[in-house]
Design a protein that fits this description.
Strand content: 5-15%
CATH class: Alpha Beta
Low-confidence stretches: none
Structural class: alpha/beta
Largest sheet: 7 strands, parallel
Number of strands: 7
Order of helices and strands: HEHEHEHEHEHEHHEH
CATH topology: TIM Barrel
Mean pLDDT: 96
């Protein structure tokens, strides 16, 4: 969530007691989240002044934390702190792994926990995960988590069942949604190095595979409602909730996943087509119904 700009957001928290909530920039309201739903995992991110790979990664991480730590300490209700947002997929993964590992160490010195990764949908490539392992192992040693983003368009399950280049296909994985299963099932679980995972952005994003996918042009979920109705996926916003429910059920099958956060609530006009403020009551109804199941 970008901003707590409507009472619907806290009403959602009161009703649903969600597994996880992420906030960017506007963090003070997470204290209210913890008050009414103490079991909810909270993740915070502050805007980075730079995401350039230059110089020594250890020194860069120390400077990064030093520049933000006063805000961290002012917000003790944040459980995990993210660093960079969607780093360049073509970056030097050795450099970024060293940066993230040192960021974990720096946060630990303040008794704070890190969320490492922050990669965007469709990246990194499978082979790059081996180069990122030092960051995952350091986060795991200090009680941290891994965060990733997963989007699809024109539907959330677009390309499900397609393989990654050079790897076999699986019916329950894809290069977009459920991509994380390649990392966990083929690397982390066999090595015994599993780390808790949160998908900190998920939903519909028309930018993903833009120009190489079916469906109408568009950005957020609101741009695809008519298309979904034509496909028989549901009427109006319910078609989106149906897809979020499908994704939720998939993640519930993997015990290492804490949960996911839909992008976005409180987005204002800039993220108008992605904003879920008006469907938060329906989303709360879904979450409550799930909690009531044996």
């Amino acid at each position: 969530m970008i901003s707590n700009d409507t009472p619907l957001i806290m009403e959602f928290v009161r009703r649903a007691h969600p597994a996880v909530i992420k906030a960017v920039g506007d963090l003070g309201w997470l204290a209210d989240v913890k008050e009414v739903s103490p079991e909810t995992v909270t993740i915070g991110r502050l805007m980075a002044t730079s995401q350039d790979i230059e110089g020594d990664p250890v020194e860069a991480a120390r400077d990064f934390v030093a520049g933000q730590v006063s805000r961290y300490l002012d917000n003790p209700w944040v459980d995990y702190w993210e660093g960079w947002n969607e780093p360049d997929p073509d970056l030097d993964m050795y450099w970024y792994a060293a940066f993230e590992a040192e960021r974990v160490r720096q946060l630990a010195a303040y008794r704070l926990k890190a969320a490492v990764g922050g990669f965007s949908a469709g990246v990194p490539e499978f082979s790059q995960w081996f180069n990122f392992m030092p960051a995952i192992e350091m986060a795991r040693a200090h009680g941290g988590i891994l965060t990733l983003h997963e989007y699809g368009a024109p539907t959330m399950d677009y390309l499900l069942g397609d393989p990654l280049p050079g790897y076999p296909a699986y019916h329950d994985r894809g290069p977009l949604a459920l991509r994380y299963r390649w990392l966990y099932e083929d690397i982390l679980l066999p090595r015994g190095t599993t780390i808790p995972l949160v998908i900190t952005e998920a939903g519909i994003d028309g930018i993903v595979m833009s120009g190489h996918r079916p469906g109408p042009p568009g950005l957020g979920w609101k741009d695809f409602v008519g298309y979904w109705e034509e496909l028989g996926l549901g009427s109006g916003p319910q078609a989106y909730i149906n897809q979020l429910a499908w994704y939720d059920h998939q993640l519930q099958a993997d015990g290492y996943v804490i949960g996911f956060t839909v992008f976005t609530a409180g987005g204002g006009d800039h993220w108008r087509t992605y904003d879920v403020n008006n469907i938060l009551p329906e989303l709360a109804t879904y979450v409550v119904a799930q909690s009531a199941q044996p």
